[in-house]
Write a structure and sequence with these properties.
This protein has about 90 residues and is mostly helical. The chain has helices at about 10-50, 60-85. The two termini are about 30 Å apart.
């Protein structure tokens, strides 16, 4: 049996492993970008809105945190719609 034959179990396992690794790598990159942008927005909102007395405008900080929270909720709802509508 040839090494790259679709009937070879090792070839199938190798392809599955490559796909899982690619998806996990992209997910890690996406999460890293998401966390970095949220932290940068928090730093900018805290540093640009603080006064000399050290008083922060908490409504701006909450606004910065609500945007990713809404995104997470929307992604969960979207995932539920996608998985409930599919027939396997």
């Amino acid at each position: 049996m040839p090494e790259d034959s679709p009937k070879n179990p090792a070839t199938i396992a190798d392809n599955v492993g490559d796909n899982v690794g690619d998806v996990a790598g992209m997910s890690a990159d996406l999460f890293g970008s998401f966390a970095e942008s949220t932290c940068a927005a928090l730093v900018i909102s805290c540093s640009s809105l603080s006064t000399l007395e050290g008083v922060y405008n908490f409504s701006t900080i909450i606004f910065v945190l609500c945007i990713p929270a809404i995104g997470i909720l929307v992604s969960l709802v979207t995932s539920a719609f996608i998985t409930e509508g599919s027939e396997v």
